[in-house]
Predict the 3D structure of the following.
Amino acid sequence: MPYLGSEDVVKELKKALCNPHIQADRLRYRNVIQRVIRHMTQGLDMSGVFMEMVKASATVDIVQKKLVYLYMCTYAPLKPDLALLAINTLCKDCSDPNPMVRGLALRSMCSLRMPGVQEYIQQPILNGLRDKASYVRRVAVLGCAKMHNLHGDSEVDGALVNELYSLLRDQDPIVVVNCLRSLEEILKQEGGVVINRPIAHHLLNRMSKLDQWGQAEVLNFLLRYQPRSEEELFDILNLLDSFLKSSSPGVVMGATKLFLILAKKFPHVQTDVLMQVKGPLLAACSSESRELCFAALCHVRQILHSLPGHFSSHYKKFFCSYSEPHYIKLQKVEVLCELVNDENVQQVLEELRGYCTDVSADFAQAAIFAIGGIARTYTDQCVQILTELLGLRQEHITTVVVQTFRDLVWLCPQCTEAVCQALPGCEEHIQDSEGKQALIWLLGVHGERIPNAPYVLEDFVENVKSETFPAVKMELLTALLRLFLSRPAECQDTLGRLLHYCIEEEKDMAVRDRGLFYYRLLLAGVDEVKRILCSPKSDPSLGLLADQAERPVNSWASDFNTLVPVYGKARWATISKCRGVERHGPELPNASCATSGPLVPAENKERVQDLPDSGALMLVPNRQLTAECFEKTWLSLKVAHQQVFPWQGVVHPDTLQMALQVVNIQTIAMSRAGAQPWKAFLSAQDDTGCLFLTELLLEPENLEMQVSVKQSKARTETLHSFISVLETVIGTIGDLKS
Amino acid sequence: MIHSLFLINCSGDIFLEKHWKSVVSQSVCDYFFEAQEKAVDVENVPPVISTPHHYLISIYRDKLFFVSVIQTEVPPLFVIEFLHRVADTFQDYFGECSEAAIKDNVVIVYELLEEMLDNGFPLATESNILKELIKPPTILRSVVNSITGSSNVGDTLPTGQLSNIPWRRAGVKYTNNEAYFDVVEEIDAIIDKSGSTVFAEIQGVIDACIKLSGMPDLSLSFMNPRLLDDVSFHPCIRFKRWESERVLSFIPPDGNFRLISYRVSSQNLVAIPVYVKHSISFKENSSCGRFDITIGPKQNMGKTIEGITVTVHMPKVVLNMNLTPTQGSYTFDPVTKVLTWDVGKITPQKLPSLKGLVNLQSGAPKPEENPSLNIQFKIQQLAISGLKVNRLDMYGEKYKPFKGVKYVTKAGKFQVRT
């Protein structure tokens, strides 16, 4: 970088901006401003010239305006007081005759991101919504969402929402899509924009007029609409048929998902749709963009789970070429492994065999594991290939092959003989822990069929002192003991030495304990050892390793075209779980800080706080439901559940209220302490927007608390989780009293 | 939807950032760098990364990473596609999508990003509409601008935004009315050691350049439409017409756009225009090997094959190569181990070949596997699938347009295993 510090630059630019000669020359003036922007984008702090830049915004030159607005949006949060000065100019520009200037000014004003700006932007936005230029309307509609975000709280402006709903009928397709986007953000707390029948039909009719982004998003919104009749459903599907052939993969996937979800009761329609998108999906799999290719491959795998034969005739599509990035190759190998059938198995295996000697060790290993996967169905061919691979005497290959053998012997006992014949000699080429464990396990379990098994294990025992992995030692103990049972003469001496070493010299506790355990077991007699160690070896019916069952399309339809297929369901669950905790994390401490009086002892509080994670129920904190609203809802609903909890003594309303707040149950109204009968009304809401309204009633003389719960959406499982949360809280408070 | 965008070069510098909803600190990219490190090769970084608070979806184009920060669950294909569209737009505006070009035009880049995305949602992405909002830089224009002081921003609102058809602006006027179509086919193929085809497929597109006044309604028909297996269409095409009559009927956007893309994948239909004779061998226990390849024409329908380049990633143990080409020139980069042979045209009388010695690291074991050859070539005036445009008719306007169709075939991922 040519400059020493930003201060000199700022000073110099400031001088230039103030220079009346420069200001008079449009071109020079703009050049100086461009320099400011350039420095800004390079990360230099240019906030020092804010005042001068605000002055520069009063110009007819639209480029200059743009640049100044860009600058202001960046630095307004740092200089809110100065930015207020700029608002005047911006407001004026919002009524400029040129629609482009109007739109530009409005967009910049909405993006200022500083406190207090709301009151200034409200009127321009409302004017913008009725502007005759669609460019301005587009900006204004999104501006509504930005304004809502600035407000920060959950208060929803009803009039604005209605206006936006009516703008869904706007002529301009982008205004329509922006309305949906905006409403979705504003109404996030209430579960997003509502798609009812007229809106759905309107959107369906406008689909062909939208650009690809709009189409993809509208398809996503339409998922919320539930057609009334079968006839309507098929009408919708007919209308959307052409989007399955769109040139944009995003639209194709969106349409596919919509089809799968709408037709969830018609499996033949689902299969038909998947047939139709086969072409586009395959095209995306060989697309120029590697990222598209990757995402498409993930979805192909998803489909294969339900329709294993779906892509079998196109297996050659999934052959890897040398120049592809790693993550694509790995996906392709997985796909190949899943679409194998009688016709293509020969070619697929030949291809995979080629990958096993790839330069990249990771990829080679993935290919070997894939062959192992195929071996569950086509055992003989695969075992032969794997045996040949052992002949290469490459460390990274041998170790994976042996691990594959171990799993295979467990799942397909019929191949044991072949595996046992292949094993001798590979001990020289295994160095890592996983590989050693697998080899030792095989030698232990099937040692009676491998002539030199005792001697291989003996070598391991010789070197046990320099062995770094405890897991290998454990495996060695078990294997040697097993082999001792079938070939005692050859193993007795070695076993003795190993046990001696493990008990006397080993530092790792787990290994030593295992050694001691086997020693004592041997003291109990050989029959006892046999009974314990040689119980049935493998039982494929347990299904621990293989979960090959076909899953119905409906089990993953809702995950289609999301990030789930990219990550795989299990991994996604962990990722989103961490995320869920984090997202709700910052709010919980606030609630509990306010309530962490001396009344709720620490251990109880913890217990209570753990609760929301325990079930599928996730209560949303700080839902401010007004008393009137509560009353209306309460009267309109039926009691979903009634239960009686044990209770002793009088109630301390404050304690109860705080405890409930910790688990995000809000108290609407409550009798005074000591009132008889004592009553309380509670409300809570879970993350799906379902409301739980509760009445607590404590009759005098009775030693129990009567609880009635009403639910806005009938769902039994969440209701039960909610009751158990409530029960724990009341139980905890009740216990305190006694 | 898209919170922020970071542009990162191959050496890991973040050289441009833009935020839409709220400012996300640069430190979020550390997760990306971490993943890059894990992937060993920077290009192998997975396109979707999850971090505690965001997802990072990235694309890799022309040695640049476009990393977008996403906060909520989104359809991944949607974001990937959009990022590619951003890169395409840069390419379109600056002629190349490189760090230097973006840095030189940083102001235009910001203007573009501002128009393409608002509050994280895609807005104007059609190139012809964007070009009316923000004029692309040209040498001539920058000279004119610096003299007259006029700007490269349109002062009027794009008319396309007022037309009833979103992809076409209203009131288009040309003195010469022209419609050109480019049929471009790429052959993706894997050829095995013995020369037989493991896999072959044609990826074709028809790109159009339409400069017609008014609201023309075009229909394009083919001699052999049944060839096309999977076709995807520009939104302007009437799908029902295609289904019933196999005719492409549409009101075109103004300017350049991709009309359709298609695949031909039944293998017997895919002709392989070149063959390679090769013998690459490494001797056991010696520090050299032999390398000999010859390229010849095959199924080329009588057209000349030109622009041939062969790239080979040699195994790591190769130190240097001493080769003699009968035609063209070759380079070998001892660091990346990439051999590039620029062949040029094939003349059937004298087939181009490249042969010589390979020096290996002494003492290292001989490579397990022979390298694959990647081949590029080009054939003008031929669509290898045999697709032919029959006729183009225009309705709705009175004038007579000038029409033209060009065919070209190229190698896509064309790989020969040895």
Observations:
- Helices of chain B lie at 29-38, 76-94, 99-104, 106-116, 127-133, 139-148, 239-245.
- Chain B has a mean pLDDT of 83.
